[in-house]
Automatic annotation (TrEMBL):
<dbReference type="InterPro" id="IPR005959">
    <property type="entry name" value="Fumarylacetoacetase"/>
</dbReference>
<feature type="binding site">
    <location>
        <position position="188"/>
    </location>
    <ligand>
        <name>Ca(2+)</name>
    </ligand>
</feature>
<dbReference type="GO" id="GO:0006559">
    <property type="term" value="P:L-phenylalanine catabolic process"/>
</dbReference>
<protein>
    <submittedName>
        <fullName>Fumarylacetoacetase</fullName>
        <ecNumber>3.7.1.2</ecNumber>
    </submittedName>
</protein>
<dbReference type="InterPro" id="IPR011234">
    <property type="entry name" value="Fumarylacetoacetase-like_C"/>
</dbReference>
<dbReference type="InterPro" id="IPR036462">
    <property type="entry name" value="Fumarylacetoacetase_N_sf"/>
</dbReference>
<keyword id="KW-0106">Calcium</keyword>
<dbReference type="Pfam" id="PF01557">
    <property type="entry name" value="FAA_hydrolase"/>
</dbReference>
<dbReference type="GO" id="GO:1902000">
    <property type="term" value="P:homogentisate catabolic process"/>
</dbReference>
<keyword id="KW-0479">Metal-binding</keyword>
<feature type="binding site">
    <location>
        <position position="90"/>
    </location>
    <ligand>
        <name>substrate</name>
    </ligand>
</feature>
<feature type="binding site">
    <location>
        <position position="104"/>
    </location>
    <ligand>
        <name>substrate</name>
    </ligand>
</feature>
<feature type="binding site">
    <location>
        <position position="156"/>
    </location>
    <ligand>
        <name>Ca(2+)</name>
    </ligand>
</feature>
<feature type="binding site">
    <location>
        <position position="195"/>
    </location>
    <ligand>
        <name>substrate</name>
    </ligand>
</feature>
<dbReference type="InterPro" id="IPR036663">
    <property type="entry name" value="Fumarylacetoacetase_C_sf"/>
</dbReference>
<feature type="binding site">
    <location>
        <position position="188"/>
    </location>
    <ligand>
        <name>Mg(2+)</name>
    </ligand>
</feature>
<keyword id="KW-0460">Magnesium</keyword>
Amino acid sequence: MELGPVTYGVFSVAGGPRRLGALVGDRVVDLTSAGVFAAASLNPLMAAGPAVWRAVHDRLADVDLDRHAHPAHTVRMHRPFEVADYADFYASEHHATNVGRIFRPDGPPLRENWRHLPIGYHGRAGTVVVSGTDIRRPAGPLGPGEFGPTRKLDFEAEIGFVVGVPSEGPVSADAFAEHVFGVCLVNDWSARDVQRWEATPLGPFLGKSFATSIGAWVVPLHALDHARVPAPRQEPEPLPYLRPAKPWALDLAIEVRINGHVVSAPRFADMYWTPDQQLAHLTVNGATLRTGDLFASGTVSGPSPDRHGCLLELSWDGRDPIALPDGTTRAYLEDGDTVTISATAPGGPSLGAVTGTVRAH
């Protein structure tokens, strides 16, 4: 058969065992029963390397879907891979500039180092959850002598990159496709009041570590070749290790909904730092990679309000609450709100969606 875009995930049927699956159209192929690849998570496939990734894709063309596939709406999806480590970057100049203007209105919006290197922080692998998992409103220190549930719970629309092949040292930007298996959606939930109070002088901690949601489907990197676009001009020119011959800038169209209503449509092509630069920076000091390492882009944001990737920017930290079609407004998320982030590449494939509903503390 002629294969269209294929994505990979982990599913179960009617309480049965977890199986590795491939989404082909609106059906989920059981890769184990079809004799393509037996595993209960993506990690063994991701570790096998690019030659096996291509071979698995090619073998799917010969699978009898009537025997080995299930309608997608009948399966239960699980976290697609075991997360070995998690790092999150801050790669949008538009987002970083807006955050600087909000938090430091009397100073320069960007820190001196921002255009010289991809800024990031080390996140919490143990709280990465699959799409559909409810998010409990976190509590933490909110200011001097004050502790309680966050009043400024936010989403962050991001793109995540999943490492397949491990390394024993630095990975060059040009070796990106030799190590990264694929791409998934990420919502890096944020407690902005906790984050603002704790993140001086160090980075986010309690304001971020309570939950990070990822999509149930991982798009293999080779399926996004046609989505590559020219990288943005970077000034000043970055250090040599951050100069790939052909950067992995991607044109991905993202859509963010609150309770079903579209509130933003960021474009990943607006990002300043590219994911291959992020991977090179992550490892340049000798840090190793492990299968299942996840690193995310940071909030994807653009030059206009309709392309801002979080409520901090959309409501300007609550100064200008956004209006929803049902007549309500939002400065930040309320209990019961459902956030859905979806994305597509030009002409496909879809990255699916990542969804989470806020529950009371």
